[in-house]
Design brief:
The chain is built from 11 helices and 21 strands. It is α+β, with helices and mostly antiparallel strands. The strands form 4 sheets. It has a 7-stranded mixed beta sheet with strand order 1-2-3-4-5-16-6.
């Protein structure tokens, strides 16, 4: 790698168009006007960084200000996005410089103890201290081979509509479920507009997105966002249903929504590409292997402020452990930290005594949402047990009763 002397500068609102064209080129997309304007609304120029070589943009990154669900609550998290370097300027240290600058700014601002992102390639971000915090399942099933239990008398009523017409219902249901699901990000009106963005150029020949809503005794308590795509061959229809998200506050609503999604006339295939690893559908269908589950990465978390981050979440069991942490990019995190916590409270303070466990900062990112275990990291040689028995004693505290998941790519 060669070093670069190109300066990093803060972006301005008027830089958004140029940054959008630059990133669409890097990610092999065309510029879609409707999507571009929707993304302009969520753009925070004061959080964006860019590198120019003369007048030309050759590197960018930004962050969005949102809350992230964590075990037992939520935390302010910098949602990192728009990361890219021009192919003409690779191997010059631009990405490293951008990531270092961004992490330093987040740390010094003191408002967000973690950053979170989706990785275009998993090998990129661990070198900046990110850990794989949440995985997802990609499900693709043959609807002729999938059956749910018979409906019960209390399964309520289903209605179809356009998502934009039912935003209040969607937001209320989402917020109710989000309170108990690590990995879900807060959505205000701007972010709902982004999530529901549906330009024809992005549909891949499918229909516009629709929503099916479930009405229980107290009103709407579940929804499913989906679209269908026409496909026929010489034997007849083989249309496809693509599901974006199914969110329900009741078991009856969840089951009824999926019963409809699996039985739409003329369809033969259903897909859900951002399912939780503990997705209830896997326990509902009569032949789960027909869903062809494929485990892939979702959210990557970087702990920026160790004491603030580890105190912000809750723990499944009582824990009292001293962890020795190393952090090459943010040396303020390097040291021994005493973590005490449980289901209702937590604290993390500098420790004077000997450490029980040792790891680098990326391991704390993997543990942060409850999606990994200390034992798994130790078996990989990434967590070291310094006091015999400390691993087994602390491990149960870091998991959570719901697996972390992520419904949207930001």
């Amino acid at each position: 790698m060669t070093s670069t002397s190109l300066p990093i500068s803060s972006a301005r609102a008027e830089d958004f168009d140029e940054m959008g064209r630059f990133l669409n080129f890097l990610f092999h997309h065309g510029l879609e006007p409707e999507a571009h304007e929707t993304e302009r609304v969520i753009f925070e120029p004061q959080r964006a960084l860019l590198v120019r070589d003369g007048p030309e943009v050759v590197g960018t990154t930004t962050a969005f200000t949102r809350a992230l669900g964590v075990p037992g609550g939520e935390v302010a998290a910098a949602h990192v996005s728009m990361v890219g370097v021009a192919p003409t300027h690779r191997r010059r240290g631009l990405l490293t410089a951008l990531m270092r600058r961004q992490l330093r700014e987040v740390h010094e601002a003191g408002r967000e103890p973690v950053t979170v992102l989706w990785a275009s390639e998993g090998r990129i971000y661990p070198r900046f201290g990110y850990g794989l915090a949440a995985q997802r399942l990609q499900l693709t099933g043959d609807t002729n081979e999938l059956r749910l239990p018979p409906p019960t008398a209390d399964e309520g009523r289903l209605r179809l509509d356009r998502p934009a017409n039912r935003l209040a219902d969607l937001s209320r249901v989402y917020d109710t479920v989000r309170a108990g699901r690590p990995g879900w990000s807060a959505r205000d009106d701007r972010w709902w507009r982004y999530v529901l963005l549906d330009p024809e150029a992005h549909r891949g020949g499918a229909t516009e997105r629709r929503v099916v809503l479930h009405e229980g005794p107290d009103g709407v308590d579940g929804y499913g966002l989906f679209r269908t795509k026409s496909d026929w061959d010489g034997t007849g229809p083989k249309c496809q249903t693509s599901v974006d998200e199914v969110v329900a506050t009741s078991v009856a609503g969840y089951r009824a929504i999926w019963r409809m999604l699996l039985s739409i006339d003329l369809t033969r295939q259903v897909s859900l590409l951002r399912a939780a690893v503990d997705e209830p559908l896997l326990r509902l269908v009569d032949e789960p292997r027909r869903l062809n589950p494929r485990l892939v990465d979702a959210l990557w978390v970087r702990v920026v402020d160790v004491p603030a981050a580890m105190a912000a979440r809750r723990y499944a069991t009582d824990v009292d452990v001293v962890i020795e942490v190393t952090d090459d990019l943010l040396p303020e995190n390097t040291g021994r930290w005493r973590l005490q916590g449980g289901p209702k409270t937590a604290s993390c303070v500098p420790a004077n005594g000997p450490a029980d466990l040792a790891c680098d900062i990326s391991c704390l990112g993997e543990l942060f949402l409850g999606g990994s275990t200390l034992t798994a990291l130790a078996d990989a040689g990434r967590v070291r047990e310094l006091r015999p028995g400390a691993l087994a004693a602390a491990d149960p505290a870091f998991i959570w009763h719901r697996a972390p998941s992520a419904l949207e790519v930001f």
